[in-house]
Amino acid sequence: MTGRTQWWxxxxxxxxxxxxVDRLALLEKVLDGRGRWSEAVAREARLSAxxxxxxxxxxxxxxxxxxxxxxxxxxxTEVERLRRxxxxxxxxxxxxHLGEAETLALMTRQPEFRRSVWISDDRDAARYARRxxxxxxETYDLAAAAVRERLITPSDAHDLLRRMTDxxxxxxxxxxxxxxxxxxxxxxxxxxAQI
Length: 195
Fold this sequence. Notes:
There is one protein chain. The protein is mainly alpha-helical. Helix content is 50%, strand content 5%. α7 (123-131) links the parallel β2 (117-119) and β3. α8 (139-148) runs antiparallel to α9 (154-166). The radius of gyration is 16 Å and the shape is globular. Mean pLDDT is 89; it is low at 183-195.
């Protein structure tokens, strides 16, 4: 892929979207070796695999690398601040919004992850990340990338998103038809990466 960004961090919502239609192999091809995740996101995926068995292969297969452990005390403090103050996590539920908080703390506090892309269909979390200058994509953008990379056709991309919503997945953005993916090729907006 051209214009490579150092690392791409899909959140658990994105992983579940692809798992719900058994297309994690496509997600792995689009990520093209750039995928990473925090410990909390890996834990969420493990728990989600109980309901979406295809996730087991992703968790066990290592396509997103070893989960990133946050050991720095300052970064851990930032994780908890983000989890509670930004995302509304409850102090009595320490894993609530932990994946989002860990990912954003890694991307803002760890130099090796500052050029990274976050992939999420969580509207509020994505909006916050964009305001912080973090390039943020959605499942829709990954389907469009798969078309540009000729991994799937525009019709396949439209069908993929439709099947995800039919499976009960809530996507922030869906396509109105296959033609949309032809027009989306060069279009990027603020906070969006061209992939």
